[in-house]
Specification:
The complex is a heterodimer of chains A (276) and B (398). Chain A is an alpha+beta fold. Chain A has nine helices and seven strands, in the order ααααβαββββββαααα. In chain A, strands 1-7-6-5-4-3-2 form a seven-stranded antiparallel β-sheet. In chain A, helix 2 runs antiparallel to helix 6 and helix 3 runs antiparallel to helix 4. Chain A starts with a helix and ends with a helix. In chain B, helix 7 links the parallel strand 12 and strand 13. In chain B, strands 3, 5, 6, 9, 10, 17 and 18 form a seven-stranded mixed β-sheet that branches. In chain B, strands 13-12-11-14-15-16 form a six-stranded parallel β-sheet, with helices on both faces. A three-stranded antiparallel β-sheet of chain B has the order 2-1-4, with helices on one face. Chain B is globular. Chain B is 28% helix and 20% strand. The chains are: A alpha+beta (276), B alpha/beta (398). The interface between A and B is large, with 33 and 44 residues.
C-alpha cells in the first residue's frame, strides 16, 4: 500500500486537536476537480479566496465583511490542501486486565467482533483464513469486503489484509503485549483502508466527531469492558422524561445511537451469559 | 413510574415515565423506598454543569428493595428481596482501578467516557443522574431505578435499621468521611472545614472519629453553624469577620489549620472583590467554577499541610494561588468518593450507635413536592439542610 507521509501523520493525529480545521480542509479538497494538477488544486482556492476577500472588503458593509472573512478562510485552507486523500489510518490502544492469551483468544474470534465494533454488521468465515466483512457505512449503506489473515502469532499478534479482488483495499493488525508489574495486557491496533464511501460522507462523519481513530478507540473501549466485566456499559433503552426537539434531532444524527446494534449486542451478551 | 426530571435550568418536573428495565446482565432493578436531594444536584438545577439533557432523571442518593436481577448476578451476591443502599458511583469491580479499590475511577462504567475525556483528559466512573458526560444514567429520584454492576455497589442492610439512619450511606456520609480521610489527620491536628451543609456536617464528625483535636467550621447560615457546634466544632461566620484567613491564623497561634477542607465547591459565595468577579464570569460562561473557598483553603493552610476537596468542581477555575500552594509545600487530595471502601465500615459505626446520620434531615416530603424543595434548598429557606423524598407517599398501591 502506498501512502504519503503527510496523510499518515495527519490521520494518526491522536489528540484530534485539529479535526475541525482538517474537516474544512477536506471539504476544500473534495470540491476541487480530481483531474486538476496539484499546483492548480493548490492555487485555485487561494486565488478565488483572495478575490472574494478583496470584493468583500471593498463593500464596507456587514455582508461584505462576512464575504471577506469567508474568502480569507478559503484562501487559508486552500493553501494547506495536499494531494487528494482517499486513504485513512485508524490507531488505538487500551490496557486490558487479562492475559495476552485471553485477549488474543477473544479478539481472534472474528465472527464476534460486531459485538463491540458497532460499525460492523457481520464477519463470516469463508475459508480457512478468509473472512467476509460487512460494515454499516455512512447513511446505513452496507459495505462489504473479503480479507485474509496473512500472519499471526498465537497470543501476540494478528495481521490481515483484503484479498486482491476485493472492492476495498484495507489492512489491519493487532498486537498484544504484557504490561510490566502485572498491569495486564496492552492491545494496540492499526487499520489502514481506502474510503469506501464518498468524501462528502467522510467529511460529514468527521464533522460529527467520528474520525477513524475515534471510532476505533470506542470499539477498543467496548472490547475492554466486555473482556473485563462481561458486558458493555449502556444507557440505551433506559427511562427518561420528555426530550426536547433539539436533543431528539441530535440523536437522529448520531450513527452510534442506532438501536439495532444495541439490541444485537444485548442478544449476544445474554447468549454468552446463558452458556457461561 | 414517577420520576423527578431535569427540564432545563431552574426547571424540575415530576413526570410519569416507563419503569426501568434490565439492560445488561449485571443490572438490577431497585424499588426505591427513600431518596434524597443532594447539594451537588443544585449545580445541575442551576444549569452550571454541561451535558444535561431535558428529560434526564435526577438523583443519586437512594435505597430500596431489589425487585429484579439480570442473569449475570449470582444469588449469593444479590437477590430479589434484598434491602440495599445504592452508592452514587458506579464501578465494574474488574478494571485496573477497581482492583486497586479506586472505585470512583472505574474505567468501564461510563459509556460516555469520551465526553469527559474531552474536558478532563480522562473519565471518572459513571454516576447516577449526573450529566451525560458522567454516564447519562437515569437517577434515583424516582420510584424505581436500574442499577448497573449491581453485584459490586449496593450494600445490603439488615431489616431492623430504619431508612433514615442508612440512606446517607449512598453519598454524603462516606463523602464527608472521605474528605476527612483525605485530610491525613495526625494526633493534635486542627481541621478547618468550609461549608456546613450535609457533607460538611459529616466531615466534622468524621474528622473527630479520625482523631482530630479541633475542628473549625466555616459558613454563613446560623442554623448550619449551630448544627456544626452540636457536632463539636468551633465555628466562624465568614460574614461576621473581616478576613477568614486571618481569623483562622489567630485561632491557631498563627500557624494555620493543619488541614483545610473545601466542602463547598464550584458555587462558593464570598464577601471579597474576587468572588464578585467569579460570579460575573460564571454568568458570562467564561469561568465554570467559583473557587473562593479553594483559594482560602490554600491561603489558610499551615505550611506542608493538606487541602482536601470533596466539594464538586466541574471545569475551570481562575486565579488559584499556585504560588502559595507551591511555596508552602501543600498537598491536595480530592476525587469522587471511593464509595465501596467506606460503606460497610460506616454501616458498622451506625450499628454500634457511634453516629445517627438522620440528624441532618430537615425536610421529609413526597416526591411530588420535589420541584418546590429544590427551590427551598437552593435558596436556603426554611432552615433547609437535607431533603428526603418518599417516592410512594400519596400514591395508591401500584
Amino acid at each position: 500500500m502506498n501512502h504519503s507521509d503527510s496523510s499518515y501523520n495527519r490521520s494518526s493525529d491522536y489528540n484530534n486537536v485539529r479535526s475541525q480545521e482538517d474537516s474544512i480542509e477536506d471539504f476544500v479538497n473534495q470540491v476541487l476537480p480530481r483531474d486538476w494538477s496539484p499546483a492548480a488544486r493548490r492555487w485555485a482556492p487561494i486565488a478565488a479566496g483572495g478575490a472574494l476577500a478583496l470584493i468583500g472588503l471593498s463593500r464596507k458593509s456587514a455582508f461584505g465583511f462576512t464575504l471577506a472573512a469567508a474568502g480569507a478562510a478559503l484562501a487559508y485552507f486552500g493553501s494547506r490542501t495536499s494531494e487528494a486523500q482517499t486513504e485513512s489510518v485508524a490507531r488505538g490502544s487500551v490496557l486490558l486486565n487479562c492475559s495476552p492469551e485471553e485477549a488474543y483468544g477473544r479478539y481472534r474470534n472474528f465472527e464476534d467482533l460486531p459485538t463491540f465494533m458497532h460499525h460492523l454488521q457481520s464477519v463470516t468465515k469463508i475459508g480457512e483464513r478468509q473472512y467476509r466483512w460487512v460494515a454499516r457505512g455512512p447513511f446505513e449503506i452496507p459495505v462489504q469486503w473479503d480479507a485474509e489473515v496473512f500472519d499471526e502469532k498465537v497470543g501476540e499478534s494478528i495481521s490481515w489484509h483484503s484479498m486482491p479482488d476485493s472492492p476495498i483495499t484495507m489492512e489491519g493488525s493487532v498486537r498484544f503485549t504484557t504490561s510490566p508489574a502485572n498491569r495486564g495486557t496492552v492491545l494496540t491496533s492499526v487499520t489502514r483502508f481506502d474510503h469506501p464511501a464518498s468524501d462528502l460522507a467522510r467529511t460529514f462523519a468527521k464533522l460529527l466527531g467520528k474520525d477513524p481513530s475515534f471510532l476505533m478507540q470506542q470499539d477498543l473501549r467496548r472490547f475492554k469492558a466486555l473482556i473485563e466485566t462481561g458486558e458493555i456499559p449502556t444507557t440505551e433503552g433506559q427511562s427518561h422524561g420528555r426530550r426536547s426537539a433539539f436533543d431528539k434531532a441530535l440523536e437522529g444524527l448520531d450513527p452510534d445511537s442506532s438501536k439495532r446494534s444495541t439490541s444485537r449486542m444485548t442478544e449476544t451478551l445474554n447468549e454468552t451469559w446463558r452458556t457461561a | 413510574m414517577k420520576a423527578v426530571c431535569w427540564m432545563g435550568a431552574n426547571k424540575m418536573s415530576v413526570e410519569t415515565v416507563p419503569d426501568p428495565e434490565i439492560l445488561n446482565p449485571r443490572d438490577a432493578i431497585v424499588r426505591i423506598s427513600s431518596t434524597c436531594i443532594c447539594g451537588s444536584d443544585l449545580h445541575l438545577y442551576n444549569g452550571l454543569i454541561p451535558t444535561m439533557e431535558q428529560g434526564d432523571i435526577m438523583g443519586h442518593e437512594f435505597m430500596g428493595e431489589v425487585v429484579e436481577t439480570g442473569n449475570g448476578i449470582s444469588k449469593d451476591k444479590l437477590k430479589v428481596g434484598d434491602r440495599v443502599v445504592v452508592p452514587f458511583t458506579i464501578a465494574c469491580g474488574k478494571c485496573f482501578f477497581c482492583q486497586r479499590k479506586l472505585w470512583s475511577c472505574c474505567e468501564n462504567s461510563n459509556p460516555n467516557y469520551w465526553m469527559a475525556e474531552k474536558m478532563m483528559g480522562h473519565s471518572p466512573s459513571g454516576l447516577f443522574g449526573y450529566t451525560h458526560m458522567l454516564g447519562g444514567y437515569a437517577g434515583g429520584q424516582a420510584q424505581y431505578a436500574r442499577v448497573p454492576f449491581a453485584d459490586v455497589g449496593p450494600l445490603k442492610i439488615p431489616a431492623e435499621i430504619s431508612d433514615d439512619k442508612v440512606v446517607f450511606l449512598s453519598d454524603i456520609f462516606p463523602t464527608g468521611y472521605y474528605g476527612a480521610v483525605n485530610c491525613d489527620i495526625q494526633p493534635g491536628d486542627t481541621v478547618a472545614i468550609w461549608g456546613c451543609g450535609p457533607v460538611g456536617q459529616f466531615a466534622i464528625r468524621s474528622a473527630f472519629m479520625l482523631g482530630a483535636e479541633r475542628v473549625i467550621a466555616i459558613d454563613r447560615f446560623q442554623y448550619r453553624l449551630k448544627m456544626a457546634e452540636e457536632g463539636g466544632a468551633e465555628t466562624v461566620n465568614y460574614e461576621e469577620v473581616d478576613d477568614v484567613v486571618q481569623t483562622l491564623k489567630e485561632m491557631t497561634a498563627n500557624i494555620g489549620p493543619d488541614s483545610c477542607m473545601d466542602a463547598v465547591g464550584m458555587e462558593a459565595h464570598g464577601n471579597n472583590l474576587l468572588s464578585l468577579v467569579d460570579s460575573a464570569k460564571q454568568t458570562l460562561k467564561i469561568e465554570t467554577d467559583r473557587p473562593t473557598v479553594l483559594r482560602q483553603c490554600i491561603q489558610a493552610c499551615r505550611k506542608a499541610g493538606t487541602v482536601s476537596v470533596p466539594g464538586v468542581y466541574s471545569g475551570f477555575a481562575d486565579t488559584i494561588p499556585m504560588g502559595a500552594f507551591m511555596n508552602k509545600g501543600l498537598t491536595m487530595k480530592t476525587g469522587q468518593t471511593h464509595m465501596m471502601s467506606y460503606m460497610q465500615p460506616l454501616l458498622e459505626r451506625i450499628q454500634k450507635d457511634e453516629i445517627d446520620p438522620s440528624f441532618v434531615i430537615s425536610h421529609r416530603v413526597s416526591i411530588d413536592e420535589a420541584p418546590e424543595m429544590y427551590k427551598t434548598f437552593r435558596d436556603k429557606k426554611d432552615d433547609c439542610t437535607k431533603v428526603v423524598l418518599d417516592p410512594w407517599a400519596n400514591v395508591k398501591a401500584a
